[in-house]
Design a protein that fits this description.
D-amino Acid Aminotransferase, Chain A, domain 1; single chain; eight-stranded antiparallel sheet; about 450 residues; five-stranded parallel sheet; Rossmann fold; alpha+beta
Length: about 450
């Protein structure tokens, strides 16, 4: 087992990893930018190193500085968390060349699944259903036009080398294609340094269903059930839950088997998430794989009782999985609300600032992952998510009721947050019935606007 781990991240996920390490008796090293000097993850780690000024590219994505900190601290491994360098194959490779274990998948698997076109090809060959579209990146507008005609409009143009909702354009008619192609290509180049796009059929208002998998280095893999991540805004997840209200046990077993098969076909190890779209007829289509821990991993931890971060560390240390598929049992229902420092009344404009007072909700079945404290200043340089509230109940209704109660208890004074928005969604009749899809938030906001709210 590792003796010391550097966490190449910040905020709540860095704190989450530090806590897991402490329970495992592993020393931790935090990194921070100049503006994050007083952050909770810095205070909580055994050691901490400043890796640069506030801009992300000069600190948390500064590979030479991070490797220097790791070398100075004498760490055995680096945990990248999510975002930032977590899916950067080059960073993983550099870690390995410095005899530092990267807590994640092998470089080859990361490269394969990080390239959406190659990932799609691999899944297709493994017998995992994929969304109709181009077999690889399209190299010109003419190729995009041909692929779109074959798939049938509406289609999606998607960045081949990235995610997070960037480099994506919906094209409903051929006359819109050229403008959308140029815009998506420019955005992909700016965001990922890779302008390549691929074309896929746009499935209208599907459910976004993802499957958590764990795979060790000895060919053993299991799935931990699914998460329904359909409540999204601008392709960014807002509310996640496990299990999905739309799934039966038979569907879950089938989708889980597909996810495991796909991961093994990619030579994948460690924790990963296979993401699927589910159409209105109950058909599943592989969309992409996230080769890291997910923001929404706590809902899976609640319903399975399995600590995903500890499993990541154990697998990276060369330990075999300590359980089999038939030992994975889902109990109850869990929901996560992402709380952002944004103003819902001003089109969700990010709103950094000082936290004048912070109160965390408690009680049965409630977990809060956050880096906030009274007096902390939320900086303007990073993602606007400041907390995750997770509620567990014996069934979905109890989980929703507990979440509502927790959000009513929660106090974040000093900046606007998305808590009021979440409370409104939790009262929505369609949400309460479990009738959700990726178009839910847009329809919800339009109805709210029409009602003059």
């Amino acid at each position: 087992m590792f003796q010391k781990i550097l966490i190449a991240n910040r905020g709540e996920i860095a704190l989450r990893i530090i806590r897991a390490c402490r329970e495992m008796g592993i020393a931790t090293v935090a990194i921070y930018s100049e503006v994050d000097r007083d952050s909770l993850h810095v205070r909580s780690a055994d050691e901490a190193f400043c890796v640069g000024p506030a801009p992300q590219a000069k600190s948390y994505a500064n590979i030479p500085n991070i490797i220097s900190a790791a070398t100075l601290a004498g760490v055995d491994a680096i945990h990248p968390g999510y975002g930032l360098l977590s899916e950067n194959a080059r960073f993983a490779e550099i870690c390995e060349t410095h005899n530092i274990k990267f807590i994640g998948p092998p470089v080859r698997a990361m490269e394969l699944m990080g390239d959406k076109a190659m990932a799609k090809k691999t899944m297709k060959e493994a017998g995992v259903p994929v969304i109709p579209g181009s077999d690889g990146p399209v190299t010109s507008l003419e190729e995009a036009r041909a692929a779109a005609r074959e798939a049938g409009y509406p289609i999606l143009l998607k960045a081949s080398g990235g995610g997070g909702g960037r480099g994506i354009r919906i094209v409903r008619e051929e006359r819109e294609l050229e403008k959308a192609y140029q815009a998506a290509q420019s955005e992909a180049e700016a965001a990922f340094g890779n302008p390549e796009l691929y074309v896929e059929k746009f499935i209208e208002n599907p459910r976004h269903i993802e499957v958590q998998i764990l795979a060790d280095e000895y060919g053993h893999a299991v799935h931990l059930g699914e998460r329904d991540c359909s409540i999204q805004r601008r392709h960014q997840k807002v509310i996640e839950e496990a299990p999905s209200a739309a799934m039966t046990g038979e569907m879950r077993a089938h989708l889980g088997e597909l996810a495991v098969r796909g991961a093994l076909a990619a030579g994948y190890t460690n924790a990963g998430t296979m993401e699927f779209l589910m159409d209105r007829e109950g058909n599943f289509y592989f969309m992409e794989m996230n080769t890291r821990i997910q923001v929404e991993h706590p809902v899976t931890e609640f319903v399975t009782g399995i600590d995903l971060v500890k499993e990541q560390i154990r697998i990276a240390a060369g330990e075999p999985l300590g359980f089999t598929q038939d030992q994975v049992v889902l109990r109850g229902h869990a929901i996560e609300c992402r709380i952002n420092a944004e103003d819902p009344e001003k089109n969700f404009m990010p709103h950094p600032g000082r936290i004048e007072f912070y109160h965390v909700p408690g009680g049965p079945g409630i977990r809060v992952d956050s880096c906030l404290y009274t007096g902390y200043t939320v900086p303007p340089y990073y993602d606007s998510m400041v907390a995750k509230v997770i509620a567990w109940g014996r069934d979905r209704a109890e989980a929703v009721a507990r979440m509502r109660r927790a959000l009513e208890e929660m106090v974040i004074d000093g900046i606007p947050t998305t808590i009021p928005f979440h409370l409104e969604v939790l009262e929505d009749p369609a949400f309460l019935r479990g009738e959700i899809d990726t178009g839910f938030v847009e329809a919800f906001m339009n109805a709210r606007l029409a009602a003059g709210a």
